[in-house]
Amino acid sequence: MQIRRLPRRSFLQAAAASALTAADPPIPIIDTHIHLFDPTRPEGVPWPPKENKVLYQPALPKRLREVIAGFNVVGAIEVEASPWFADNQWVLDVSAKDTIMVGFVGNLEPGKPEFAGQMEKLAKNPLFRGIRYGYLWDRDLRAGLAKPEFMADLGRMARAGLSLDTANQSIRLLEDTLRIADRHPSLRIIIDHLPNIQLKPAERPAYEKLLRDLGTRKQIYVKLSEILHRQKQPDKPSTASLLDPLMAAFGEDRVMYGSDWPNSDTAGTYAQGLLAVQAYFAPKSRSVQEKFFWRNSQAAYRWVKRAANQPG
After folding, report:
1. CATH code given to domain 26-301
2. What is the 3-state secondary structure (H, E, C) of the chain?
3. Which of 7, 44, 71, 195 is 20 to 30 Å from 247 at the Cα level?
4. What does each of the 312 residues of the chain score in pLDDT, given as a tens digit?
5. Is the pTM of this model over 0.90?
6. Per-domain boundaries in the chain
């Protein structure tokens, strides 16, 4: 008898589908971290660079639907990958046309005179759920923390029910995150890509203490994302070694799934990233899996249900 071999992509899709349908009914997935951009626009894009042959192509909801087909991903939240203010509206306009998009984390600069007006304008769209800030786009979060107007704008976000994502992770950024959490205990904070933090051996004690401290601030959530990026490093840590400390620090109620698509394509396929976390959570209860794959993201982002197959 001849055995027919499935192509690698088909095999991975089948494995993911099997994992998803092990429970009855299957658990829906909200992907809390994707990026949308279109290098073919007349104005181009500030990121990714043309030299990046993997990423420098349109990343739009239609292509996302092709990538997630068969994986029971029913919604996605876009996290802005552009420092251009006008691109906030571009993402909102693109997202409005496809119900797979349930939220948007934008780009604004707290502390600027125009922040309040820009925030209020964007917040009129229910898809706008907050902003991302940190040490990216040549911005200095710590310098902002020293300015009363910066902290006042974070308070304005909290009162508006918006959230703050932080990226990209370092000891300095985690220290800043702790300061913000203590100054604004009602501001929901999402730590992006924490499994991929790059630490020097001497930084390990400080990191472990920060995890303990951050874990006691109940308004802080963590995306268990960029696992494949971390596993491409020379030490090649296992998924469990990356996620166990974060689960211990933040618990089952404050961790979320995020793929980082299409940036994830530089480390592996969408299926590989999803299967890694599915395998990790498979031994846990259905309740814990539901929290990770969608319930916690609803608490963190208060995203918008737009289709019948989306939970909530």
Report:
1. 3.20.20.140
2. CCCCCCCHHHHHHHHHHHHHCCCCCCCCEEEEEECCECCCCCCCCCCCCCCCCCCCCCECHHHHHHHHCCCCEEEEEEECCCCCCHHHHHHHHHHHCCCCEEEEEECCCCCCCCHHHHHHHHHCCCCEEEEEEECCCCCCHHHHHCCHHHHHHHHHHHHCCCEEEEECCCHHHHHHHHHHHHHCCCCEEEECCHHHCCCCHHHHHHHHHHHHHHHCCCCEEEECCCHHHHHCCCCCCCHHHHHHHHHHHHCCCCEECCCCECHHHHCCCHHHHHHHHHHHHCCCCHHHHHHHHHHHHHHHHCCCCCCCCCCC
3. 71
4. 333 344 454 445 445 544 444 447 899 999 999 999 999 999 999 999 999 999 999 999 999 999 999 999 999 999 999 999 999 999 999 999 999 999 999 999 999 999 999 999 999 999 999 999 999 999 999 999 999 999 999 999 999 999 999 988 999 999 999 999 999 999 999 999 999 999 999 999 999 999 999 999 999 999 999 999 999 999 999 999 999 999 999 999 999 999 999 999 999 999 999 999 999 999 999 999 999 999 999 999 999 999 999 998
5. yes
6. 26-301
Tokens of 118: 């820009």
